Amino acid sequence: MRLIALTLCAVLLAGCGAARMNDDERLSPEKGEGMVVMSTRYQDNCGAFMGSTALSVEILHDNKIERRFIPVMNSLVKKDFENPPGFFQMWKYPAGDLRFSEVVQISYGSSGRSTQPVDFQVRIEPGKIYYLGELFVDVKCNGVTLRTKDQRVRDAALFDQRMNVLKSSQFEYRLFEVR
């Protein structure tokens, strides 16, 4: 029963961030929303992990905190990149403080769950698009290492291919800082 519950939880984590963006999406300051664009990559250098990995995000707005998850690795979701696998991400968020708090791994084969602190924050202003770079999650047998990389050329081209109205020329650059 525990295995079934964990598997269901991992599947839900795969798409639990926010509504995916439509290609004709628009941002308007009146809606009080901003957008985050980034990519995530995952490398398993231990070979033993079978499960789902997500980036935990806390949204602080209107005196409340919402928690969402951005997929980093999930074998059930089509990947945008290979060698190593990864995802191109575009999410709308309410204006406010967006805090990336941890990388969460949930194992399909056991009741295992592990976390790696991230602690990166960006303020989302209405109508703005923030490019955060690429977060690379490197799993080793003795822990997880996080790295960031500026992939703005590749990710801007992907953004422009997928969006009809919004353009990468609108990006504000706030690259991830891993401490």
Written account of the structure:
It is a single chain. The chain has 179 residues and is mainly β. The protein has one domain. Helices cover 13% and strands 50% of the residues. It has two helices and nine strands; from the N terminus they run αββββββββαβ. The N and C termini lie far apart (38 Å). The relative contact order is 0.25.
Question: How many separate domains?
Answer: 1
User: What distance separates the N and C termini?
Assistant: 38 Å
Question: Which percent bin holds the helix content?
Answer: 10-25%
> Rg from C-alpha positions?
16 Å
How many individual β-strands? 9
The global form is globular
By oligomeric state, this entry counts as: single chain
Summarize this structure briefly.
The protein is mainly beta. The protein has helices spanning 2-14, 152-162, and strands at residues 33-44, 51-61, 64-74, 86-94, 96-107, 113-124, 129-140, 143-149, 171-173.
Lay out the secondary structure:
Blueprint: H1 2-14, E1 33-44, E2 51-61, E3 64-74, E4 86-94, E5 96-107, E6 113-124, E7 129-140, E8 143-149, H2 152-162, E9 171-173
Parallel strand pairs: 1-7, 7-9
Antiparallel strand pairs: 1-4, 2-3, 2-5, 5-6, 7-8
Which features characterize this protein?
5-stranded mixed beta sheet; 179 residues; 4-stranded antiparallel beta sheet; disordered N terminus; globular; mainly beta
